[in-house]
Model the fold of this input.
Amino acid sequence: MPNEPAAAASAQPEPVRWGVLGAANIATDKVIPAMQRGAHSRVVAIASRDPERAQATASALGIPHAHGSYEALLADADVEAVYNPLPNDLHVPWTLRALEAGKHVLCEKPIALSAAEARTLLAARERTGLLVAEAFMVRTHPQWQRVRELIAAGRIGELRLVSAHFSYFRDDPTDIRNQPAAGGGGLMDIGCYPVTLARWLFGAEPLEVFALIERDPRLGIDRLTSGLLRFATGRASFNVGTQLVPYQRLEAFGTRGRIELQIPYNAPPDRAVRVLVDDGSEFAGAAAEALEFSPLDQYPPQGDVFSLAVRGQGSVPVPLEDAIANMAVIDALFRSAETGRWEVPSAT
Done:
C-alpha cells in the first residue's frame, strides 16, 4: 500500500505505564495530573501505606489501580516505570527496590541524602539495565532550553557568573521539609535548583565551593543558606531561604550581556513567563530584549521525555551520574558551612 511508509513513520510508541509511590502533594497536585495529560505517559497505579487514602486518591484522579502498600505496587506487572515522590530519606531505599522489581524510576529531587548514598544506585542500574533519573522539571522547560542555547551561542559573550535566589516561608514542624532526619532544610529542598542549573549552564563541575548556613534553633534545619561555587571559567552564587518572603530569580552574566529569568523554577502553567536578554547598552537594562514563553505546565514534558527514553527514543535529562555530581556539590556545601573553608566536591 502506498501510504504504509508514511503511516509507519508517524506511528507513536505505546505510552509508558506509570505507578506512583505515595500520595505526596507534589504527586497528586502536579505530577500525576500532568502525566495524565502527556502524550507518552499513563498513570495506571498509585500506592499508599494507608489503603483508604490510596483508593480515595485513585478515585479522585481517575487512576485505575490503588495499592495499599508500596510493595504491592512494585509487584504490579502492569507498571513499567515508577515515580518516587517520597520524603528525601526514602528516595534511595525505594528507588533501589523499584529497580530490583524491574521498574524504571523517575525520583524526586534531591535523589539522595548524600552522594555516597546516591552512588548505591549505580550498581542496581547497571545490573538491571533500567533507567534512573532525577526529577528536575526545569531542565525540560522551553525557557531553560532557550537560555542554554543563547549562552552556548555566545549571545552574552563568555559566561562568568550565575546568581540566583529562591525562598518561601514555612515554619510548620510537621512539614517534612522542616524535619532534619527526613532530609529537610533549604539547601536540600530548593538549594539543589541553583546548584544543578549553574552546573548545567557552565557545562562543568565546580572546582570548590563555600557556604554559610543559618539553622533554625527550634527545627534544626538550615533556614538560610548562601553558597558560592567556583568553576574554572567563572562563579555561581545563590541564596535560599525557607523563612523568607516567597521570591525567585536567576541571572546569568557574561562578558557582553546578561540573561534574567523572572520565574526560573516554578514557571506557572497558566500565564506566560519572560526571559530578559540585556546587552548592557542602556542603564538598568532599559534596552533588554524580552523573550516571552507561552503558558506551559512543565511537568508533562518531564514525564514524556522520560517515557520516550524508556521506549528507546532520546535520553533522560538528568541521569544518575548528573544527580550524583549534584549531591556531591551539596555535600561539599554542608561541609564548608561546618569547616568555614572552601571544600572540593567529590562525586567518585
The longest strand covers residues 243-254.
